[in-house]
């Protein structure tokens, strides 16, 4: 099995404004810092209905650490599936900003997420956060398809190959129809 890196870019926490009284008001900054991707699965928020449907995870649960409820450094942009699975658990977790997830997780050629055997905390997260769910690999595959379509489009423009252009248009038409359908139901 070929191992593929878990994520191409690591999120950051760059917010340097005043401390806000409601953690929800950080959502725009979190979306930007996490590049509109779940801090735990690297799934793009678009496939979940966009920023509106993404959630804010408290890395250390607010129920157990109320003093951290509005601390930006304790917040993680997260898909609802992971945020709900994590809930108020205080088990071992890797902070998506402070840790290199590529050292703890990898993907196979189908986008399935796996913990590295030597990382006990990754194995814990894999089970607790349900990182094995098929939805994460499907979203990864859709992202990969879109990236390849952009590359193919550039190549077609450079090479001016009519057969490749026709194939690209057929595939991109179906793909874009699907994305329009998703936007319409969001």
From TrEMBL:
<dbReference type="GO" id="GO:0003676">
    <property type="term" value="F:nucleic acid binding"/>
</dbReference>
<keyword id="KW-0255">Endonuclease</keyword>
<dbReference type="Pfam" id="PF01844">
    <property type="entry name" value="HNH"/>
</dbReference>
<dbReference type="GO" id="GO:0008270">
    <property type="term" value="F:zinc ion binding"/>
</dbReference>
<keyword id="KW-0540">Nuclease</keyword>
<dbReference type="InterPro" id="IPR002711">
    <property type="entry name" value="HNH"/>
</dbReference>
<protein>
    <submittedName>
        <fullName>HNH endonuclease</fullName>
    </submittedName>
</protein>
<dbReference type="GO" id="GO:0004519">
    <property type="term" value="F:endonuclease activity"/>
</dbReference>
<keyword id="KW-0378">Hydrolase</keyword>
<feature type="domain" description="HNH">
    <location>
        <begin position="42"/>
        <end position="88"/>
    </location>
</feature>
